[in-house]
Fold this protein.
Amino acid sequence: MNPTITAFEASPDRGQGLARDMRVRWALEEVGQPYDVRLVSFGELKKPEHRRLHPFGQIPTYEEGDLTLFESGAIILHIAERHAGLLPEDANARARAIAWMFAALNTVEPPIVELEMATILERDKNWYQERHPILEDRVRVRLRELSSRLGDADWLDGAFSAGDLLMVTVLRRLSSTAEVEKFPNLAAYVARGEARPAYRRAFADQLAVFTASLPR
Amino acid sequence: MNPTITAFEASPDRGQGLARDMRVRWALEEVGQPYDVRLVSFGELKKPEHRRLHPFGQIPTYEEGDLTLFESGAIILHIAERHAGLLPEDANARARAIAWMFAALNTVEPPIVELEMATILERDKNWYQERHPILEDRVRVRLRELSSRLGDADWLDGAFSAGDLLMVTVLRRLSSTAEVEKFPNLAAYVARGEARPAYRRAFADQLAVFTASLPR
């Protein structure tokens, strides 16, 4: 039986693939695991039936037989532990790849989300002009550190891993800015992720949800 | 050979145990693994020798033979995979405990850190009075959801796990506010974590670093 994930019924980014279901779709495509998608409206997110799957009322969730999971990082780790292709076999390399998963979600993503939220929610506030550059600086600090560690390597630690998958999706959240492009090796890193056949299949599938929602 | 972790030479919270080494100390105490600590000054954090261990110039790091890890979540998962006591044996329960680890770090901690940073960095800005309540609301949304899921259970999903360990340390970051106390079941949950013998040993050890740094 295929696992079922949830995704937004109405793509908030008009099919750019920035919502967190994209990460899970990509991971499932990398390992060749077919899956089903249940689309959820914004109203349904906050209802008890969805809260039972996701205590914080978000997407994606992951259902597979008796198991229900939430948190894209945990879902991807679960997939990576059960299929080859997302984590190295060597125990130390595996632990380091998992460290990059946590780094993407707990060190690099938070200042990016904060910048994104301020751009959406605080644009009319009288502090926006002063505060926005501070948020950009926080993001740049992380990008500079990441760029410095990546150097001229293709991926963060040896072969492509779930750590790279998460980091690429986190960096893509900056696609409406020019921040990543200031670091040519990071821009090339994101492009390398986007060029993977599994990424392209996942992207096309989430885009199809948006396209189908358009009025004819 | 014992693993070696890094911690701040000068406790930024004067021994309250809010820095991220506390999480790793607690996990090591839960599983009964002795460890060594190397103290790092703020200046050393940004030097190349430390950046080789931690690309983002933070603590804690974890060194064990050939393996170097960073990110407290990844370090704790590594410890939990090698010792009994932090993750359930049942595969589905184990995956759910890991989901709570990610939830603590990627869903609950970011708004708490944001509130903390604003309190420290934006107190004299002219927008502080207007923006601070917005940040408090964001934290309360997450606390309400967490409180609702926890209900009258002792821990988030069955027995105490690494997910609870991380969630308790994340909630403790609010200890200079009265936010957690607004949710009695969350306050009791944090107290339950703090009462564990392993927590108390870890707390005493990090406090000793602070006490030793005081002028005599």
Summary: Chain B has a mean pLDDT of 96. Strands of chain B lie at 4-8, 36-40, 61-64, 67-70. Chain B touches chain A through 42 residues (CB under 8 Å). Chain B is about 60% helix and 10% strand.
